[in-house]
């Protein structure tokens, strides 16, 4: 996503080991068999590794997904960010403030003002009404009742629960309860949302609906989000970047399409092998640089055909000095001419497939099926960014 | 064959109790005065209220908390208590039980909370509570007399020792049973330990705590006869009297009186527990 924006959350060499004398495991890790299993480690040291040497940077406004199977340490890593779990080793920074060295008072302050958290099983207070649940974070900060309730109402409206404020959590469905959980996290207007398997306890249809609403919601509220899930599809839908975890260690951090196209380890490859590529790979990921496919208006026909011969292409895009595409020329039409030296307007094909860089592979394939002309990838100002040939598409699909 | 060593633990404890009575007279006097004062006031109050008003008040409370059935049941039970000619004794017993339960809650609740949060304290407390419940109550009547003399106060104190454990245990249990994720949520929003306790843990532990109060009341009622042996009055004294005189009529009547009071208190307290449970566990 936005690479220029500043780093919001930074974890450096983070370890979390559960058990007695956990520091020892960190110190001695290098001496262990690197393929040691959980049970072997437990027998040997009496400890369980939650997070192993994790380092990551999360940009402001990013949706960062921690993904892995159960026991992979993703929830543990999330809890190290706001120190619900005390890291065994390593540092956590939020906005260049070292979270791991804060006093309890400062930590409470950070938790109540800067971070909000959403839990897998909602973790609502059953003895309080919805509005009192949503206002909990503000109540803790000592905000007065009137202000608290108006903020809570705003928050409830955001998640579409207006009219339910007087209900008790048990009167609501699972999906609605999690909206209350989300509203509670949003009510303090935190910069960071920590979401622990937030939609995992919901049934698939509701989950999908919540994901859609969540995507729309965060366009409005603009938060930095750390989202833990074991659901790969969910990760792919929500994430700007994904960190795949296994046995406490981060295997790969990359954009969703990158993970699908170029898995870094066998584990990640295995993880993503069943994913339908066409749904996650975008034009940007597979397009070629346009130079090879471009001819300029001032070229003579001979110059154009020479270039196309050289590159071995049947079609080329006529691009002006503003990088705007004027049309497409067909090699066969050019050579089939009546000896004209310069290009005539009627030989310029004006209709050609043209897509933006975030178009999914699925659509690109259907476009390519209808036209033999390569697909042009352009930006908002209609400037050419790249070209996707049919060969390129087939190549992507086959690997 | 005899054992090589004889441990005179009884003698040591005896010496310790004597040492305590000699050196902490002022402290015991103070406790005695405070407890005696509370007891006296409650006893006076219960005996001062005209019985129709008292019964009406209980009926209203029972109706509000536990519904119509319990309200009617309470009215009949209390009326019968009066008809047995045991109203004054019943009120004295109620005063003793109320005082003992009050003291048990005052000490049991914080002890239970602390035990829930501190595993070491819990480990220390557990055998102590076991002892308080299993050592026959007659055994600690003796030090109770040595510390507090004879009368209602040592009777109350002996009752407290017996009825305190369930209060502590069920408070600890209640707090430990609060959903870990909810406690985590409390932390995640920046609660102080006090806020966590008051806004999350105690409200959610309330059904269990109320069950503890109920148990404590029942335990206290079962102690009234023993308390009467060291001078406590009320229905317990009536029963003790009937044993000494082998007077079955008096004994049965007083026994029924205790039963009536116990059942009324139990039904009402159970109503509170159920209501709290409903509010919390419906999820």
- Which strand-content bin applies to the residues of chain B? under 5%
Q: Tell me which oligomeric state these chains represent.
A: heterodimer
Q: If classified by CATH, what would the architecture of chain B be?
A: Orthogonal Bundle
Q: Structural class, from secondary structure content of chain A?
A: alpha/beta
The CATH superfamily of the largest domain in chain A is identified as P-loop containing nucleotide triphosphate hydrolases
The second-level CATH architecture of the largest domain in chain A is 3-Layer(aba) Sandwich
Placed side by side, the strands forming the largest sheet of chain A appear as 6-7-8-3-9-10
How does the major sheet of chain B shape up?
none
Count helical runs of chain B.
13
- Quickly name the level 1 CATH class of chain B: Mainly Alpha
Tally the helices of chain A: what do you get? 17
Count structural domains of chain B. 1
Q: Major sheet of chain A, described briefly?
A: 6 strands, mixed
Order of helices and strands of chain B: HHHHHHHHHHHHH
CATH topology of the largest domain in chain A: Rossmann fold
Please compute the radius of gyration of chain B using only Cα atoms.
21 Å
Q: Can you identify the CATH class of the largest domain in chain A?
A: Alpha Beta
Calculate Rg of chain A over CA atoms. 27 Å
Overall pLDDT level of chain A = 89
Work out the largest interface and the residue count of each chain: A-B, 31 and 21 residues
Structure, described:
The complex is a heterodimer of chains A (399) and B (283). With 399 residues, chain A is of the alpha/beta class. Chain A has two domains: 61-76 and 101-278, P-loop containing nucleotide triphosphate hydrolases (Rossmann fold), CATH 3.40.50; 284-398, CBS-domain, CATH 3.10.580. Chain A has helices spanning 22-28, 38-45, 74-81, 104-113, 130-134, 136-140, 145-158, 174-187, 204-221, 232-238, 256-261, 266-272, 283-286, 301-311, 331-335, 361-370, 390-398, and strands at residues 7-18, 48-59, 63-67, 89-94, 97-98, 115-118, 192-196, 224-229, 241-246, 249-254, 294-295, 315-319, 325-330, 354-355, 375-378, 384-388. Chain A has a six-stranded mixed β-sheet, sandwiched between helices. In chain A, strands 2-1-4-5 form a four-stranded antiparallel β-sheet, with helices on both faces. Chain B has a single domain, classed as MetI-like (MetI-like fold). Chain B is built from 13 helices and no strands. The model of chain B has no long low-confidence stretch (mean pLDDT 90). Classes of the chains: A alpha/beta (399), B mainly alpha (283). The interface between A and B is medium-sized, with 31 and 21 residues.
């Amino acid at each position: 996503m936005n690479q220029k924006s500043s780093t919001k959350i930074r974890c450096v060499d983070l370890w979390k080991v559960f058990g007695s004398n956990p520091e020892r495991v960190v110190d001695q890790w290098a001496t262990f068999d690197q393929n040691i299993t959980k049970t072997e480690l437990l027998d040997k040291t009496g400890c369980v590794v939650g997070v192993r040497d994790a380092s990551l940077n999360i940009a402001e406004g990013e949706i960062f997904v921690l993904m892995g199977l159960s026991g992979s340490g993703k929830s543990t890593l999330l809890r190290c960010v706001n120190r619900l779990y005390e890291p065994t080793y390593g540092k956590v920074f939020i906005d260049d403030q070292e979270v791991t060295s804060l006093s309890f008072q400062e930590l409470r302050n950070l938790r109540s003002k800067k971070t909000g958290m959403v839990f897998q099983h909602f973790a609502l207070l059953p003895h309080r009404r919805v509005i009192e649940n949503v206002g909990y974070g503000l109540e803790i900060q000592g905000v007065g009742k009137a202000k608290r309730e108006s903020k809570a109402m705003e928050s409830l409206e955001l998640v579409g629960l207006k009219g339910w404020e007087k209900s008790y959590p048990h009167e609501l469905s699972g999906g609605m309860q999690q909206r209350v959980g989300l509203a509670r996290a949003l009510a303090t207007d935190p910069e960071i949302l920590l979401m622990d398997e937030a939609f995992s306890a919901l049934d698939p249809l509701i989950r999908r609906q919540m994901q859609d609403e969540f995507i729309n919601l965060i366009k409005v509220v603009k938060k930095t989000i750390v989202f833990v899930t074991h659901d790969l599809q969910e990760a792919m839908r929500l994430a700007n970047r994904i960190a795949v975890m296994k046995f406490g260690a981060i295997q790969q951090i990359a954009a969703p399409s990158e993970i699908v196209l170029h898995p870094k380890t066998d584990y990640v490859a295995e993880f993503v092998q069943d994913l339908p590529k066409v749904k996650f790979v975008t034009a940007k990921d597979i397009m070629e640089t346009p130079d090879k496919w471009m001819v300029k208006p001032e070229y003579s026909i001979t110059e154009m055909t020479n270039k196309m011969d050289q590159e071995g292409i049947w079609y080329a895009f006529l691009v002006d000095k503003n990088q705007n595409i004027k049309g497409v020329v067909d090699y066969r039409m050019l050579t089939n001419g009546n000896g004209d030296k310069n290009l005539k307007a009627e030989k310029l094909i004006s209709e050609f497939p043209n897509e933006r860089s975030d178009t999914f592979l699925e659509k690109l394939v259907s476009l390519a099926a209808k036209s033999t002309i390569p697909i042009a990838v352009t930006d908002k100002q209609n400037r050419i960014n790249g070209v996707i040939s049919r060969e390129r598409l087939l190549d992507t699909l086959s690997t | 064959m005899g054992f090589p060593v004889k441990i005179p633990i009884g003698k040591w404890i005896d010496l310790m109790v004597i040492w305590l009575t000699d050196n902490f007279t002022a402290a015991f006097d103070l406790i005695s005065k405070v407890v005696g004062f509370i007891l006296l006031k409650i006893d006076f109050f219960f005996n001062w209220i005209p019985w129709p008003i008292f019964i009406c008040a209980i009926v209203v409370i029972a109706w509000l908390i536990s519904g119509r059935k319990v309200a009617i049941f309470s009215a009949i039970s209390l009326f019968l208590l009066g008809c047995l000619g045991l109203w004054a004794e019943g009120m004295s017993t109620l005063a003793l039980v109320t005082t003992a339960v009050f003291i048990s809650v005052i000490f049991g609740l914080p002890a239970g909370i602390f035990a829930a949060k501190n595993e070491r304290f819990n480990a220390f407390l557990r055998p102590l509570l076991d002892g308080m419940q299993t050592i026959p109550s007659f055994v600690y009547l003796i030090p109770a007399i040595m510390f507090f003399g004879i009368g209602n106060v040592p009777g109350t104190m002996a009752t407290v020792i017996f009825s305190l454990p369930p209060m502590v245990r069920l408070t600890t249990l209640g707090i430990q049973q609060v959903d870990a994720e909810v406690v985590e949520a409390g932390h995640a929003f920046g609660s102080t330990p006090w806020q966590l306790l008051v806004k999350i843990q105690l409200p959610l532990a309330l059904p269990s705590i109320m069950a503890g109060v109920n148990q404590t009341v029942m335990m206290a009622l079962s102690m009234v006869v023993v308390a009467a042996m060291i001078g406590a009055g009320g229905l317990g004294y009536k029963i003790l009297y009937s044993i000494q005189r082998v007077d079955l009529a008096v004994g049965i009547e007083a026994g029924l009186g205790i039963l009536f009071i116990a059942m009324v208190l139990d039904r009402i307290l159970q109503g509170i527990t159920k209501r709290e449970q409903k509010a919390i566990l419906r999820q």
